[in-house]
Amino acid sequence: MTNDALQLGQATPLPASPEEARLDRVPNPHADTDYCARFTAPEFTSLCPVTGQPDFAILVIDYVPDRWLVESKSLKLYLGSFRNHGAFHEDCTVAIGKALAGLLEPRYLRIGGFWYPRGGIPIDVFWQTGAPPTSVWLPDPGVPPYRAR
């Protein structure tokens, strides 16, 4: 993939939905090394599929890349495309994890969705591809248990 094919460096509107969004990947210049890359989205939003009210979450995505890295602008646009997308917390979190795992084919990927309360109950959702490589340091997600985050 050439940089011309990427969304990076171009004016790119926010996609209207996750189905319209495009995740880009770039070659990993350190594919011979195990390391953890983390993306944190502290202002993730989607819509409740029942009420249409906004839902808010902190997403923490950790992955150990193999041949590919996710291009961060495309990830930001992809996550932003959920703003008008109606789905339950579990669906949003797991769908994002599966989309990234399918695109990147990482050695390991985990996502934590730390959702603010809906109906008085916070719903936190965690998904991973399997066991992490033993050679990699995976830090704590850094999101405290719910106490009015």
TrEMBL record:
Top-rank lineage group of the source organism: Bacteria
GO molecular function terms attached to this record: preQ1 synthase activity
Record localization: Cytoplasm
UniProt KW keywords: Cytoplasm, NADP, Oxidoreductase, Queuosine biosynthesis
Residues forming the catalytic site: 48, 55
Protein's UniProt keywords contain Cell membrane: no
Principal location class: cytoplasm
Coiled-coil parts of chain: none
Stretch list, region Disordered: 1-28
InterPro entries, per the entry: GTP-CH-I_C/QueF, NADPH_dep_7-cyano-7-deazaG_red, QueF, QueF_type1
Gene3D superfamilies: 3.30.1130.10
Family: Belongs to the GTP cyclohydrolase I family. QueF type 1 subfamily.
Entry protein name: NADPH-dependent 7-cyano-7-deazaguanine reductase
Gene source species: Methylobacterium symbioticum
Organism ancestry: Bacteria, Pseudomonadati, Pseudomonadota, Alphaproteobacteria, Hyphomicrobiales
